[in-house]
Design a protein that fits this description.
The complex is a heterodimer of chains A (155) and B (87). Chain A is an alpha+beta fold. A four-stranded antiparallel β-sheet of chain A has the order 1-2-4-3, with helices on one face. A five-stranded antiparallel β-sheet of chain B has the order 1-2-3-5-4, covered by helices on one side. The N terminus of chain B is likely disordered. Classes of the chains: A alpha+beta (155), B alpha+beta (87). At the A-B interface, helix 1, strand 3 and strand 4 of A face helix 2 of B.
């Protein structure tokens, strides 16, 4: 681990050396972001070869604690590196699911528009129904037309 | 006093802290934004040196917190960069 981590107990920091061919810069930034509460971070080095991250603990730490801090940082790098790789692999599936979801919503919108058009048509029909002539008396309800006669017949 | 730690440099005068940050990892925009957000705590300036480093000089209004200022500034700049990356 000595190659990747250098602990300085006196100055309360650990220097992590990261191979940027293994971990991309955005993965390193993301891992570093998690440690902003625990430590002060300073970046240096060459982003194409080796990235140096100096983690100065916010509270006074022992040698072991500083080493654990550095190791935790590397664990976090693996965590986000894996997450990035997985999301790259699942990128196409995610796109398909998203497209499907968006299309489903679009379908609903079209259906909603159709429903609204139908509703408007029915309203127009209702409004116009008063003006329609009914010489044969088709529009008169059954009860109005025959209800009284039945009562009379039964009597 | 000037101290050199493997590529990460810092120097302190009275009430003032001067340090260098790598241009490859820190952007001028975020550092300016951080400096603006720190204006109630300190005054400062960012200089673009010909090499690969930015020179940052911070003058603290409270000299007892001078040690923390450099680190807090770096953390804050990193936080801003991460936020902008997310957006």
């Amino acid at each position: 681990m000595g190659e990747f981590l250098k602990v300085n107990e006196q100055e309360n920091y650990v220097l992590a050396s990261i191979n940027s061919k293994i971990y991309s810069l955005d993965v390193i930034y993301t891992a570093a972001y998690v440690f902003l509460e625990k430590a002060y971070l300073i970046f240096d080095g060459d982003p194409k070869k080796e990235v140096l991250v100096k983690l100065t603990a916010k509270r006074k730490c022992s040698w072991e604690e500083l080493e654990i801090l550095g190791k935790d940082f590397f664990n976090e790098l693996i965590n986000y590196g894996f997450h990035k790789k997985q999301s790259e692999q699942n990128k196409q599936i995610k796109q398909i699911i998203l497209q499907r979801a968006l299309l489903t919503n679009l379908g609903d919108e079209i259906k909603l528009e159709e429903d609204l058009n139908e509703l408007e048509f029915l309203k127009i029909l209702e409004e116009d129904s008063g003006e329609i002539e009914d010489p044969e008396g088709i529009a008169i309800p059954w009860e109005e037309k025959y209800g009284n006669k039945k009562k009379k017949n039964s009597n | 006093m000037v101290t050199k730690r493997k590529k990460i440099q810092t120097s302190e005068r009275e009430g003032e802290v001067c340090f260098f940050l790598n241009k490859e990892f820190y952007t001028l925009k975020e550092m300016r934004e951080a400096l603006n957000d720190f204006k109630f705590v300190c005054e400062g300036k960012i200089e673009e040196t010909p090499g690969k480093m930015f020179k940052i000089v911070l003058k603290s209004k409270d000299s007892s917190k001078l040690n923390m200022l450099e680190h807090e500034f770096c953390n804050y700049s990193l936080g801003l960069m991460k936020n902008n990356m997310c957006i």
